[in-house]
Amino acid sequence: MSAAAPLMPEIDFAYDDLPDLHDVLDALRQAGPVVPVQFHGQVAWLVLSHAELAQAFTDTVNFDPAPGYLERTEESMGRTLLGLTGDEHRITRAMVAAPFMPARVRQYVQPLIEPIVQELLDRIEGQEEVEFVSAFTRPFPFTVITRLLSIPVADEALFLKWAVKLIDHPWDPDGAMEAKAGFDAYMEGLIEDRRHRPQDDFITMLVQSEFEGRTLDNERILSLFRLLFPAGSDTTYKNGGSLFAAVLSDPAVRALAAQGSDADRAAIVTEGLRWQTPTALLPRMAPHDAELGGVRIKAGDWMLFGITAANHDPMVYKDPRRFDPARDNRELLSFGRGVHFCLGMHLARRELETALRLVFERFPALRLTPGKPVEFISAILRGPRALWVQPYGGSESLSGVS
Amino acid sequence: MKEVVNVTFRLAGGETVILSGETGETLMSCAVANDVKGIIGECGGWMACATCHGYVGEEWLSRLPPPSDQERAMLEGCIDVRPTSRLTCQIILDATLDGLSVAVPASQT
Q1: Closest CA to A69 of A215, A169, A216
Q2: What letter would DSSP give residue A171?
Q3: CB atoms near residue B75 (< 10 Å)
Q4: Contacts of A332 in chain B (CB under 8 A)
Q5: What angle do CA A141, A350, A139 make, to 5 degrees?
Q6: What is the mean pLDDT of residues A55-84?
Q7: pTM of the full predicted structure?
Q8: Choosing among A55, A216, A341, A347, which should be mutated to test the B contact, i.e. which has the most B CBs within 10 A?
């Protein structure tokens, strides 16, 4: 373990809310591209610069994420894609990728994603004020996953309980293993059903998938399903909250979201992913002794991949705090880079773009509640603490529509 | 010693741009460095994002090494796939590709 002393030792990046995270990161940037900070009471190497982070993401020899993920999560999560290396990863990823590819994801928008958005917005109808994270941005991506997995609505609550508990293993191992048993038994039933009675759906695509002569066994499919919730639901919901906060704060961006083209909304979503990245600092464990950005990192050291810091690196992004959908965002690191690049990227983008389009169609006067400013919190999974909105603008306009 | 490799991109809107790439770089990185709209390459060139799909000029197809299994699998999932579809991150420019032409799919713009 490294002997370096953490900078800003009054901050623990695992626990502190850090509403001023970007000021903190800018201050740390003065000390170098990779700096020691405190995380869970230990020292972690925080990667701040875009160049070093891109290097760390793509150097899967020196910074292979698999050993660290297996050590921390294998018991409850199994060998997920993040715990696989080399050919085993390449082949498994190729087999599970089909339902996440752009052509397929485009087919989910109308029959699956749009109805979920409308259902959630139905529940907002008629209300003067709602907390938009709990009413919309949190349930939305979770429901997309449960519907993709063909979970009946009646079982969604049970599923949420299991999914939350699965990743709670470090704090409640028995609870997590119990959740795993319930989750696996339930999903294995659906997988076996599709093996015998194929349908045109997500699970069938996986059971029929074949690459270089290999197919997926039930455990491989289950390990993908266990990963779907933390990878695809928590991230997208945090980002959805930040996105709407940003769009509602800027009249020009809001007008573009409401009246612009699909390409305009895609650009707004991309800038939202950069401006307030949900996986702000991604915890990793260094598998080997290595050097990065002039510091020596030892095997077993914690690292924090500073995705949100890299996405605000002034060497790459001019005036990085400004929300500007017109900027060139091709160097975005929000979905990672390299062989472990986020498999759900296309799905996340289509969800967020669809939400932007439909929310303003249904509630063209939607606004942030005056006097309730939005505060973004957490350095790990970052998003608004709360997002109070008025669907019909000021209360005086409610009577006119009901 | 790097040599210049000229590449023509036809954008989704019909406009044509001629770029000077270098031997050894990928077609994707040449496009991104020159701001070719619609070639994104978000994963950095690791066949993991399917955002650098392009249509290679038919006369060039046979001069390129064939796609790997992994590239083929990724291409299957792209939008509006044609027989000339390739991931531009998998095409490494060399002197024999001077004059290469590529069209950008409308779906990526």
Answers
A1: A169
A2: T
A3: 19
A4: 42
A5: 15
A6: 93
A7: 0.95
A8: A341
Q: Which amino acid is at A10?
A: E
Digit-coded pLDDT (tens) for B48-97: 999 999 999 999 999 999 999 999 999 999 999 999 999 999 999 999 99
Q: How many CA within 13 A on the CB side of residue A67? A: 13
Three-class secondary structure of residue B47 per DSSP: coil
Interface of chain A toward chain B, CB-CB under 8 angstroms: 54, 57-58, 90, 93-94, 97-98, 100-104, 106, 211-212, 263, 328, 330, 332, 335-341, 343, 345-346
- B33: its two tokens: 């460095």
Give me A215's structure tokens. 């197919």
Q: What is the ipTM of this complex?
A: 0.95
What pLDDT digit, counting tens, does each position of A173-202 carry? Answer: 999 999 999 999 999 999 999 999 999 999
Quick one: tokens of A368? Answer: 């942030």
Q: Say if the Cβ atoms of A90 and B48 lie within 8 Å.
A: no
Tell me how close the Cα of A50 comes to any Cα of chain B, in angstroms. Answer: 13
Q: Would you say residue A394 has pLDDT above 60?
A: yes
- Quick: pLDDT tens for B13-59: 999 999 999 999 999 999 999 999 999 999 999 999 999 999 999 99
- Chain A nearest-CA distance from B99, in A, is 26
The proportion of chain A whose per-residue pLDDT surpasses 90, expressed as a percent, equals 92
Q: Mark residue A335 as left, alpha or beta (left: phi above 0; alpha: psi -120 to 50; beta: remaining).
A: alpha
Tell me which chain A residues have a C-beta less than 8 angstroms from the C-beta of B76: 98, 101
Of B32, B35, B48, the CB nearest to A341: B48
What does the block give as tokens for A126?
A: 């008629």
Strand order in the sheet with B16-22: B16-22, B4-10, B100-103, B53-56, B85-87
Length of chain B: 109
Contact A211 B73 (CB under 8 A): yes
* Terminal-to-terminal C-alpha distance of chain B: 35
Distance CA A112, CA A119 (A): 11
A118-127: average pLDDT: 97
Coil/strand/helix, residue A320: coil
